[in-house]
Amino acid sequence: MRRIEGRAVQNSTDHSCRFRVVRIIARVAWSVAIGVGASYVLLSAATTGDELWLLLGLLTPVPVLVAALHADPIGGDAEIRHLSWLSLLFGVGSIWAWLADGAVDDVEAYTVPLAIALAVTGGLITWRRMAPSPRSAGRTTLFASAAAVLVLPSVATSAESELRTLILVAGGSVVAIAAMFLPQAARGVPIRLLGVCTGGAAFIGAALVRGSAVALGEPSDLAAEFWPVLALVAGVIVATMWFRTASQPGRLAESMIAVSVAAVSIPTLLSVAGGDAATLRAAVLFPALALAHIVAVYGRWRPFAGAGVAWTTLGALVLGGCAALASRQVEPFDLVTASIGSALLGAGVVRMRRDPRLGSWPALGLGLAVLLLPALVADFVEPELWRLIALGAVSAIIVVIGAVRRLQAPLLLGGAVLLVHAVAQLWPWLTSVYEAVWWWLWLGVAGVALIALAATYERQLRLARNVVRSIAELR
Prior knowledge:
mainly alpha
């Protein structure tokens, strides 16, 4: 019995070895046959002319077949499975060659097949292979690449087409909002994040590119702000839904608001610099940005608050204001400077309320300077009655607030501006009074004043020291 069992084991071992040898020979034979056929096709490619797409199409299944002879080309672990990627390249190349032969120049004709191929490949990998971790970088990168190929080239060419912009803005909005009803992740792929980012890139990017093109002179029946405003509305909706559902990463909602604000600001600033209804656009944009900046710094209404939105609005205000002032298209310029100064003052007040140790100079000094000094310079360069009255009234109000709230920066800066402003406006009257009286009479008045000051020197010195001390004690 033992001999019989031993012979049976030996026979089965020999049989399995023979089967392996036969299988290896079959693999080698098939690989050689496929390689010879593929080589023949590649050597023929140089003389094919317009039939290159056909040869590439014939080559498409070859890498997958070779990989399948050795292991599962999708779900397996053998290194040869990576050879299957050549099938994707051959297939997409075949489609591109066919489109080029037909003189097709629409960018979507070339990007959509590649995006579909990448998405299908990612779907097959996700279906056949278990995710190694809750977040699989490989398949996520594959789906993200498919989304980028599908969206970004179309966004870059949306400046030329109103229809393409409509499709991107509408489709991107629908995709981003619909993605909010998907789970956050599935089989290692953050599908909600990918959907929102893809849709956001579509509607924000297309609106920015098309709006900027219209602002720079591209013919259109719509205003430059039309598409950016729609993108802003969509961005606010998506950001609010992202924040309310506690989706991760949480900062995406704030980033969406910030990017939407930038997208709606840039075309308007280009129109302002170009002189297209510059004053009207500046009167709407700059106060709106100032209010948005104060709300962002205040930080109560998420996702409309935070450092990202605050810096974006401030950057749009400062850079856009510099561009508007340099172009000299906004009249009066106070629309720009007053908005920037008000934004800085509002943000400074919020910071002072949060931090009782913060002084008024770092919090309010820059805002007061931007608000008052340009108008003060205009006193001497191009005086206008309404600006003279407004500067005097605003300076007086700032001085009163500084005195009541015991704030050093408003009291000193506002008082200095008010004094210079008063002297500048009263100088003609003072000159006429001086010229109407003999010069020696003024010399006598000055002498009497010096005598009175000398007689009360110690008292005046103490009074001056007390004033300096009181001002130094102000916040």
